[in-house]
Design a protein that fits this description.
Distance between the termini: 45 Å
Number of helices: 13
Structural class: alpha+beta
Largest sheet: 4 strands, mixed
Number of strands: 10
Strand content: 15-25%
Strand order of the largest sheet: 1-4-5-8
Helix content: 40-55%
Oligomer: single chain
Bound molecules: flavin-adenine dinucleotide
Length: about 375
């Protein structure tokens, strides 16, 4: 018998819930006020081994699949916590695992698995390129046994809290390659050595506490030994890692959606106005029920995408559709939850306004809804490409 999606990995879910109970609302509210990184929470997740579940046992991880990872992040978000500070530690290593040399994997993966090294920065987006990644201009020029990197990246999250970064650069200018997606390469940058020696990191304050930054490269020297895979094939490597990222972010949205529905239902049962619980009014209960239906439907698509991923099958469309459905369902649930709480929805102490801001991000990052619709239109439905 197929178990209900949120009953999969019950022991893992139970331990994640217990860990998250140590980091209740006031912990997140205090950090949110000053945009402080949740170091204690990230350390607890690291020590528990939850961030290394996708690393094979041979390299020191627990060798579990994406299904287990989605269960972890869903529970983190359902508990009112936020995985955004550390979720990339789970999946950014996928580029190294899939395309790195054995020597690179042995040098880094066991230390990433133990938490000694943080690889949770992923540098792709640039101010001038937007979603059109082939337009990136951050360049790496070969000089002896180093690459010399120049350019700028924007929205690179957790760079200040990471030891290593996966960086996408142009090694051949766009006008000198057969296809625009050719001529890009992936470098593993040691941020501990780079900062102050050609790399400057500046935090960008946003509407949520997400530790995102802009990066400035000025003649940063990166050893040629830190090239991942083949020079010029980097775009394909980055695309490969995106399905895992989208499925995991979608799982966070499912967790957010359930958080909002749990909170809205509890409040609607307890809050009495006009001499009865507000949840007795169909005008209050139907929107909550609708949000539940949307989250439950999105969850099935996310689970399907994770199952295909774990079976090694193509899952690009399901990953995209799951991410779109889940981010829209969590946003709808957020809106309902805030409305059900009336004025208290705006009060910091209830956590609803914070989660409301946090879950909105996922319709834009890591990929915006229009780009998903474009993928479905052209790759699934065979409609002509618009760009
Ligand atoms: C908090 C935060 C954290 C982030 N973290 C990272 C990170 O760690 N690493 C990283 O590399 N990036 C990161 N990003 C960047 C994120 O992936 C991008 O913001 C996102 O992919 C959208 O790209 P953009 O902002 O350049 O929007 P643009 O590409 O400028 O698009 C703007 C809007 O126009 C729409 N649009 C664009 N072209 C079309 C078209 N042809 N048809 C229809 N609609 C279109 C888009 O859907 C979007 O709504 C982060 C962003 C944020 C806000």
């Amino acid at each position: 018998m197929v178990s209900a999606p949120d009953q999969s990995f019950p022991e893992i879910r139970d331990s994640v819930r217990k860990l998250c109970a140590r980091f209740p609302g006031p912990y997140w509210q205090a950090l949110d006020r000053d945009r402080v990184y949740p170091t204690a929470f990230v350390e607890a997740l690291t020590e528990s081994g939850f961030l290394s579940v996708l690393i094979p046992e041979a390299y020191g991880g627990s060798g579990l699949g994406l299904g287990a990872a989605t269960a972890i992040l869903e529970e983190v978000h359902r508990s009112g916590c936020n995985g955004g500070a550390s979720h990339a530690q789970m999946y950014t290593m996928g580029t190294l695992l899939k395309h790195g040399s054995e020597a690179q994997k042995l040098a880094y993966l066991p230390r990433i698995a133990s938490g000694e090294l943080r690889l949770q920065a992923f540098g792709v987006t640039e101010p001038g390129a937007g979603t059109d990644t082939t337009r990136i201009t951050t360049s790496a020029r070969r000089d002896g046994d180093h690459y010399v990197v120049n350019g700028q990246k924007l929205w690179i999250s957790r760079a200040e809290h990471s030891d290593l970064m996966i960086l996408l650069v142009r090694t051949t200018p766009r006008d000198q390659v057969a296809k625009p997606s050719d001529g890009m390469s992936v470098l593993l940058v040691d941020l501990r050595e780079a900062v102050g020696h050609g790399l400057t990191i500046r935090p960008v304050r946003t509407m949520l506490n997400h530790a995102t930054t802009e990066l400035f490269f000025e003649d940063l020297r990166v050893p040629v030994g830190n090239l991942i895979g083949l020079e010029g094939s980097g775009f394909r490597y980055i695309l490969d890692g995106m399905n895992a990222e989208r499925i995991l972010i979608a799982a966070e949205c499912i967790g957010d959606g359930k958080f909002f529905i749990d909170r809205a239902s509890a409040y609607a049962r307890d809050r009495e106005v006009f001499g009865r619980p507000i949840g007795q009014n169909q005008g209050v209960q139907f929107p909550i029920a609708r949000a539940h239906v949307q989250v439950a439907a999105a969850e099935l698509m996310v689970q399907r995408a994770a199952a295909l991923f774990d079976e090694g099958q193509a899952c690009g469309s399901e990953a995209n559709m799951g991410k779109m459905l889940a981010s829209e369902a969590s946003w709808a649930a957020a809106d309902v939850c805030l409305q059900v709480h009336g004025g208290f929805g705006f009060a910091e102490a209830y956590d609803v306004e914070r989660k409301f801001r946090e879950t909105r991000l996922y319709q834009v990052a890591p990929i915006s809804t229009n780009l998903i619709l474009s993928h479905v239109a052209t790759h699934v439905l065979g409609l002509p490409k618009s760009f």
